[in-house]
Design brief:
heterodimer; A: about 110 residues; alpha/beta; Transcription Regulator spoIIAA; five-stranded mixed β-sheet; two-stranded parallel ribbon; 4 helices; 7 strands; globular; B: alpha+beta; Heat Shock Protein 90; 3 helices; about 35% helix
């Protein structure tokens, strides 16, 4: 899991597979990074080619936690199949989702 | 006709999920799957096998999970079997799909995703042998 601070936005790059093993390997690191930053978080999903309910739960938990602190967690770069999962589960209504990292950073700057 | 089949049996324990996911990699290397078929196969392991580990067997009677993949003229059949508590995923209630972030829960989402992503799903509990069998089908396109 790579993290990078761009301006006031914490950008977190997800690994390619968010299956049970992928989630277990980043779950605590992700929540610690999000809780320490407290503000604007962008989760870059462009490498992700698999998500299941476990990964959706992890993202939602972090969204709730950071929103409770006045921040936000937005997503960028969903591959076709991932976007499909988000649509079917209606998770696309819970997150602000951008086509790519630049669009998300512009969105945060507005 | 172009038929092939691969199968594995593992104990219904958390450590086995990793083996099953590695088995999915093997299948993807040996069968020509479409992107959607590969995704569904991984999803079945991730959601259904995990449910079997969590709910199917009680602590004293840890049993097995059998996973088989068959391909027939491009159609993928994923068969997952266990010997524990009967659970028909078709009876699983619709998950919470509300857009209220605070209230949103994610219970039942895994089974819902499997149902949504496949072309056909059937389930059978054999009262004689006690085996549960879930068959999930994904066509070529």
């Amino acid at each position: 899991m790579n993290t990078e601070q761009i301006g006031d936005v914490l950008v977190i790059e997800m690994p390619n597979r968010l299956d049970a093993i992928g989630v277990a390997s980043i779950e605590s690191q992700l929540s610690e990074a999000v809780m320490a930053h407290k503000g604007k978080v962008l989760v870059d999903m462009s490498n992700v080619n698999f998500v299941a309910s476990l990964a959706l739960r992890m993202l939602l938990t972090n969204l709730k936690n950071v929103q409770a602190q006045g921040g936000d967690l937005r997503l960028s770069g969903l591959q076709t199949q991932i976007a499909d999962i988000f649509r079917k589960s209606r998770f696309d209504t819970l997150f602000k989702i951008y086509p790519d990292r630049d669009a998300a950073l512009t969105g945060y700057a507005e | 006709m172009n038929e092939s089949a691969l199968s594995i049996e593992v104990p219904a324990r958390w450590e086995s999920i990793e083996h099953l996911l590695a088995f999915v990699d093997t299948i993807e290397g040996q069968m020509v799957l479409t992107d959607d078929q590969g995704y569904l196969l991984r999803l079945v392991v991730e959601e259904i096998a995990t449910n079997i580990v969590k709910y199917s067997y009680d602590h004293h009677t840890k049993g097995a999970i059998q996973l088989a993949c068959e391909q027939d003229n491009g159609e993928l059949r994923v068969i997952i079997r266990d010997h524990g508590r009967p659970f028909d995923p078709r009876d699983c209630p619709e998950p919470d799909l509300s857009d209220d972030i605070e209230a949103r829960t994610v219970g039942g989402l895994g089974v819902f995703l499997v149902r949504e992503m496949c072309d056909h799903l059937s389930y059978q509990h054999d009262t004689q042998s006690g085996w549960n069998e879930l068959v999930v089908v994904k066509k070529k396109a």
